[in-house]
């Protein structure tokens, strides 16, 4: 094997593979990039390379990470990264797959936090009090995130042409650039139409002369140093936190909580698990099955509260 095929070359090739062939999301790419850099630094300190290391070296690397106190979930991701990396090296450069026998840690299944339907109502009621242009935009974002069950990354990157008012669906691009269509309630479609017809242009800075070519038609945008960008996830997180404070909701809530909340509410209303999988854009059905535990918990509460012999 040529000397030019060193660790830096392997790392660059894998990074290119993730971005082009694998079409990994930005978050996945950055996480894997950090994981591989950390692994290569470990090898360098041990005076080893990808070619000279063995399975025990990988196990020692993971043991060091575990001893540092990282969570089982993070450790599991790093193992997935190593498996993907060495599988790629094996197929591309015929390097033995030294990560094939690595075992994932047992993960504790935690039920996701979710808001009750009454808490969602309180949140929307608080958001509705701000009738300013930005206030209306913020409520549209909050309402849309909950009504569709989309990820916050999908919300902030939305473009106007992804909304299909004629069919009542919104086209979303999820992890791995996988597309799905999600139906929207009529009330949300009307709210979106109102926002686009009456609020959208008011939010465009006056210095933008040609409003028809404004930005890239981002549905929710920000303006920074003469550049148009989609609103950031951090900006929405700040907006949500303000709503939570005003609504006096003390749970540990993130934008993702709204996704969990919709899934839980739909399941309680009788939606089947397969429909939920399609709506949320999960590749594996097992990812959605966590919500069945929430549903059983809800049934237990109803039983204990309402059953005459409970």
Name the descriptors:
DNA polymerase, domain 1, 3-stranded antiparallel beta sheet, mainly alpha, 2 domains, single chain, 310 residues, 13 helices
Account of the 3D structure:
By secondary structure, the chain is mainly alpha-helical. The mean pLDDT is 86. A hairpin with a 5-residue loop joins strand 2 (169-173) and strand 3. 55% of the residues lie in helices and 6% in strands. The longest helix is centred in the N-terminal third of the chain and has 22 residues, at 72-93. It is built from 13 helices and five strands. Helix 1 (7-19) runs antiparallel to helix 2, helix 6 packs antiparallel against helix 8 and helix 10 crosses helix 13. It has a three-stranded antiparallel beta sheet, with no helix packed on it. The protein has a two-stranded antiparallel ribbon with strand order 4-5. It has helices spanning 7-19, 26-45, 55-67, 72-93, 117-127, 133-148, 152-156, 186-199, 233-247, 255-268, 273-280, 285-288, 290-306; strands at residues 163-164, 169-173, 179-183, 221-224, 227-230. It folds into two domains: 7-93, Tyrosine recombinase, N-terminal domain (DNA polymerase, domain 1), CATH 1.10.150.130; 117-306, hpI Integrase, Chain A (Orthogonal Bundle).
């Amino acid at each position: 094997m040529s000397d030019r095929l060193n660790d830096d070359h392997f790392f660059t090739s894998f990074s290119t593979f993730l971005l082009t062939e694998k079409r990994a999301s930005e978050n996945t790419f950055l996480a894997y990039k950090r994981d591989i850099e950390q692994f290569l630094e470990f090898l360098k300190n041990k005076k080893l390379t990808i070619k000279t290391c063995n399975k025990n070296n990988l196990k020692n690397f993971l043991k060091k990470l575990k001893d540092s106190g990282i969570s089982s979930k993070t450790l599991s991701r790093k193992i997935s990264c190593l498996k993907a990396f060495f599988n790629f090296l094996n197929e591309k450069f015929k390097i033995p797959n030294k990560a094939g026998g690595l075992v994932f840690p047992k993960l504790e299944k935690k039920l996701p936090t979710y808001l009750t339907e009454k808490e969602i109502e309180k949140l929307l009621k608080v958001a509705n009090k701000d009738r300013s242009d930005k206030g209306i935009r913020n409520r549209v974002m909050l309402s849309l995130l909950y009504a569709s069950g989309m990820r916050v990354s999908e919300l902030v990157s939305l473009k106007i042409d992804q909304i299909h008012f004629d069919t009542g669906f919104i086209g979303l691009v999820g992890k791995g650039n996988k597309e799905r269509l999600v139906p929207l309630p009529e009330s949300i479609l009307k709210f979106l139409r109102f926002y686009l017809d009456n609020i959208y242009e008011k939010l465009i800075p006056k210095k933008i002369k040609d409003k028809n070519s404004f930005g890239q038609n981002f549905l929710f945008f920000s303006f920074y140093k003469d550049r148009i960008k989609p609103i950031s996830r951090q900006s929405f997180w700040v907006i949500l936190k303000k709503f939570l404070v005003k609504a006096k909701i003390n749970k540990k809530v993130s934008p993702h909580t709204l996704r969990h909340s919709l899934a839980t509410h739909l399941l309680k209303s009788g939606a089947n698990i397969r429909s939920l999988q399609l709506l949320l854009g999960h590749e594996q059905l097992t990812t959605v099955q966590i919500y069945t535990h929430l549903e059983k918990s809800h049934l237990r509460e109803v039983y204990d509260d309402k059953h005459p012999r409970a």
